[in-house]
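Q: Trk system potassium uptake protein TrkA, please. Structure only.
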Amino acid sequence: MKIIICGAYGIGTHLAKMLSRNHEDITLIDEDDERLAQIGSDFDLLTAQASPSSIKALHEAGAEHADLFIAVTPEESLNITSCVLAKALGAKKTVAKISNSEYTAPELQDFFTGLGVSSLIYPEKLAAVDIINGLKMSWVRQRWDVHNGALVMLAIKLRETCEILNNPLKNLCGPDDPYHVVAIKRLNETIIPGGNDELKLYDLAYFMTTTQYIPYIRKIVGKELYVDVKNVMIMGGGATAVRAINTMPDYLDTKLIEISEERCEELNNLLDDDKALIINGDGRDTQLLMEEGIKNTQAFVALTNNAETNILACLTAKRLGVRKTVAMVENVDYVSMAESLDIGTIINKKAIAASHIYQIMLDAKVINMRFIMSANADVVEFVAQEGSRVTKKPVKDLGLPKEATIGGLVRGDEGMLVSGHTQIQAGDIVMVFCHNINLKTIERLFI
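A: Structure for Trk system potassium uptake protein TrkA:
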């Protein structure tokens, strides 16, 4: 597959590195030679110093033969323009990163398609979804709903109160049990577990279950004493915070702390009525946090543009008794540090956006896909096609790589867990958890 990426910034470089490992034919275009040089020589891709809006540069990069053209510079207008030009030159699919939420309206999709932009990526919207999912339950690091919650994946940090530690999984989650453990993150290692593997203290375990059994999972992992999230405090009033607050469930009482007085005035116009109380101040100020009721807050979300600030603020909130913390960490180098400090949910917009773009590349029908940064793994919802290999044999005979596991499926509107004897049918939505593997290997089973 020939892929052209415009913009050697966070999303573009992350995507280029990820795709180069899959041996795709990649060209990365950017006007700044220094940004291109930072990619290094360890990745199998071509670079071109040029403007993404230069027809000559697009032609030289082979836009007319491109299967996928991706524009992810910080300039929305440049991204849209370069996609329009690339499509006119012959690119099959184009993707533009945008910063205007208005463009994501469903009724505008045909308009942009007519212009030559196949897909729009709004990272703030994607990040907001992950933030809200992370706030649904105070005792869960991450939550993933499949088909309106027919199937649910929960990432849970295991503490001393967990009842199922040090017991082989074959004794805990058999074919008739209401959950499966699809992955384990232990220190710096991600494990796709077999029957003889055990859950250990401080593991981050990924459970697949159905909605009615969430209380049961909560009990066996010893999280029943965790108070449900009702009061949320957010630090940083950027675009991600605005999107998250405007889509926040009504039962959450939200306070937004923003250090810039000018930005606070803007937020009064950007936020929907009664969605949040806006406070001008520094979210790292312990006295301010105490005055604003941090002791009665169940979740603290740090969304400034500075990773160190977000991590420090979350640590302060934890010290003051907040159970649930969420930090936006755009610098990948800080992610492992944030996890080692036991910061709860980590949000990285470039990884989220890159996963969404990667989904567009796949030939199989994919409902959703996310890169789980904490586990260095992908979770993908494939739709089994009529006559595909995955429908011809029971799961145990499919020859799945050891780096992948099928956690469950949705048939019609019913979620169900998968055992080795499960026979997947055409039309099933199948949840696949993959670690350190080219997704094309799994995709072939579904087409």
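A: Brief note, in case it's useful. The chain has a mean pLDDT of 91.
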